[in-house]
Write a structure and sequence with these properties.
The protein has 319 residues and is of the alpha+beta class. The chain folds into two domains: 32 residues, no CATH class; 283 residues, Endonuclease/exonuclease/phosphatase (Deoxyribonuclease I, Chain A, 4-Layer Sandwich), CATH 3.60.10.10. 33% of the residues lie in helices and 26% in strands. The relative contact order is 0.16.
Length: 319
């Protein structure tokens, strides 16, 4: 009876000492799209129904869609650090040199300035977000492949300290890395981005529990397109080797089915914990018609002193 009561108490404490987290690449690019607007409404209905504590969103590119997401999802707090259009930022950094690139920059500056198109990232939260931070990757796409869109945007990471009334201060961050393409690869740049992301996340987390989610565009080894073994090894065994991964049966699951038969690009969206933050009970969530990605949800356990003590007591009771 004592063991049962202790197990029940431990289970209840797990829920009380955790965050319900969702990460989703919403794919909101084309402006003035009723389909995308309806997709945002479907997504936000789920956010409200399942009452997520923390939501990481990628590819909310257009300013009007970002406003709609913030309004419709009805989380008390949000982090939106987008400001300067991505291609204008890349132009200022000397990455744009060709006539074609400067012409596209001109379009974004003077013809469609209200569209936004910067990082595309948002964080929604039930709890206050303090001391916001943003990471700009030092490398991006190539001007030789301007139409892949990588130089039109400014990928990286955004984060802040989440101030939880019971769990204290938790650093939370959302990221989106450069992708690979059928006719060209960015492996060297992607490895550099991973290195910069790992250093930044570790620095901002400090000694606090920390949670990182987002679209890494890196899938486990297999037969899928974004399954580069070097990148997966770098993600899991090198740059993030001391972090806590949300582990699922990657072989049988995908978060990026792509479009059409044979286009499945794998499990590219991930949740990672640090300093006593443990993503558990992960679930791939199919939101048909909303995006070319699926959402990834999990409960992130924050190991407080009281929870650690209960865990030790439960282990002793079992023995």
């Amino acid at each position: 009876m004592f063991k049962l009561a202790l197990t029940l108490l431990f289970t209840l404490s797990l829920h009380a000492s955790s965050l319900k987290v969702l990460t989703f690449n919403i794919g909101a690019l084309l402006p003035h799209s009723s389909r995308i607007e309806r997709g945002i409404e479907i997504f936000c209905e789920r956010v409200k129904k399942f009452d997520y504590d923390l939501v990481f969103i990628q590819e909310a590119w257009i300013t009007s869609y970002r406003k709609k997401i913030i309004q419709d999802c009805q989380r008390e707090f949000h982090l939106d650090l987008d400001s300067k259009t991505g291609i204008l930022r890349n132009q200022a950094q000397g990455r744009i040199k060709s006539f074609k690139g400067h012409f596209v920059s001109w379009l974004f500056r003077y013809i469609i300035p209200d569209y936004g198109v910067d990082s595309g990232m948002l964080i929604l939260s039930k709890y206050k977000l303090d001391n916001p931070k943003r990471l700009f990757f030092s490398v991006s796409g190539s001007e030789d492949y301007l139409l892949d869109g990588e130089l039109l945007v400014s990928k990286g990471a955004i984060g802040a300290n989440l101030l939880h009334p019971r769990l204290g201060k938790i650093f939370v961050a959302n990221t989106h890395l450069t992708s690979n393409y059928v006719d060209h690869q960015y492996d060297k740049n992607r490895l550099q981005q991973l290195k910069e992301l790992s250093t930044w996340f570790r620095k901002q987390g400090g000694q606090k529990p920390a949670v990182l989610g987002g679209d890494f565009n890196i899938s486990p080894p297999g037969k899928r397109y974004l399954n580069n073994e070097t990148l997966w090894s770098a993600l899991r065994k090198s740059y993030f080797k001391n972090k806590n991964f949300l582990n699922l049966d990657f072989k049988n699951l995908t978060t990026y089915p792509g479009e059409g038969v044979g286009k499945d690009e794998g499990f590219v969206d991930h949740l990672i914990g640090l300093n006593g933050a443990f993503p558990k009970k992960g679930k791939v969530i199919k939101l048909d018609g909303v995006s070319d990605h699926y959402a990834l949800g999990a409960r992130v356990i924050i190991e407080t002193k009281s929870l650690k003590g209960l865990k030790e007591s439960e282990e002793l009771a079992k023995n």
